[in-house]
Amino acid sequence: MEALDEIILLERFESRINAGEKIEPKDWMPERYRKQLIRMISQHAHSEVVGMLPEGNWITRAPSLRRKISLLAKVQDEAGHGMYLYSAAETLDVDRRELIEQLLSGQAKYSHIFNYPTLNWADIGVIGWFVDGAAIVNQTMLAKCSYGPYSRANLRICKEENFHKRQGYEIVATMAAGTTEQREMVQDAVNRWWWPSLMMFGPSDNESPNSAELLRWKVKLHSNDELRQRFVDLTVPQSQAVNITLPDPELRYDKKTQHWNFGKINWEEFWNVVKGNGPCNRERLAARQKADDDGAWVREAAVAYTMKRRMNR
Amino acid sequence: MDEWIDDLRFSIIQQSNHPIFQYFNNLFPQNKSMATKDTFGEGEVWEVFIQKETGAPHEHAGSIHAADPEIALQNARDVFARRGEVVSIWVVPANSITASSPDDSGPFFDPANDKIYRHPQFYHIPKSVKGM
Ligand SMILES: [Fe+2]
Ligand SMILES: [Fe+2]
Questions:
Q1: ipTM exceeds 0.90, yes or no
Q2: Distances in Å between the alpha carbon of A166 and those of A80, A198, A248, B84?
Q3: What is the pTM of this model?
């Protein structure tokens, strides 16, 4: 009887999704759907939070006040994005603390891109342009996903990301039109960030075990390869507009498909970074752990203050 | 033990000598077990409702964690109102919201389904009459 109920519930769930309806927290959902969402949303949240570190590195050294307030505001937004997403994850019956513990213990993953170092100011421009640009492509899709709270969180995020990308691209354009040294500096940053940015969309779908299920339940609406192609198609003309060369000799426009073909991605590098051996993996987790430790007294004090006040009532 | 202590949603880990636990233990010697936590949690969950302009309804925006209403309001502002697009915020402890359940949403909202006479289209009026 129970198994039969489950089949009926699953059928109804899938037909709702096919009809374009959103699933809300209290609705029945398959356990796999819930698990996949928790994994995805928490990874996304961790990425926003860890993503603050490479850029935060340059706030105090921004070359002008204008650049500094922009970068500061951008990094604050990323903290906000993390909060929207933890909040969305919590609608699935997990505790935020539990998710943070998983990040700190190394059990949960975050986007591999944040394990690369920001060596100079040009990196800040290129991160806004490439990394936020790639994030926009991904999050625009996720804003249409089948789970209501995740879709709404991404909608909110997307509204803020455009500023992130534009501030980055402005830095790139300025440096690209600057002195020879500045030009070389920004080209070098592009050379370092281009391939890791393409990896942000994840491995090819035939190698991504979760893809089929996620697509069927409309957690994702496009494959990793489709998203990657979209990012390349958007970015190539932007690079041409500022006379920047993307470091791929195989990059060429295919008139028939109307897409930019690009070279082979080094997935070995990707997996190596995901497994914890990127240039900054250890540094990033140590910084998160320190922030958590250093903030503990604030959380404790806040709770103690509340307890005390309720006692005196 | 008072209910509110449960409200505070501390998280895990046993045994601590932290002064705050000693304070807590002194207050509630009968309930030592509650005070053997090393890390405080993130505070309770508050649902956040924001109004984008005067005259607009307050809309659910998401949730935040905070230990008390004042901090909840500040956290809600920092998370959901970073661009001056909000004129008012409500925060509500998540556990004080009672919601209808989707399982019985059918029968629960049923009474309204067959009352087409509550809609203006139900009523026939002469075609020549305008603006009604
Ligand atoms: Fe973000
Ligand atoms: Fe961003």
A1: no
A2: 19, 19, 24, 20
A3: 0.86
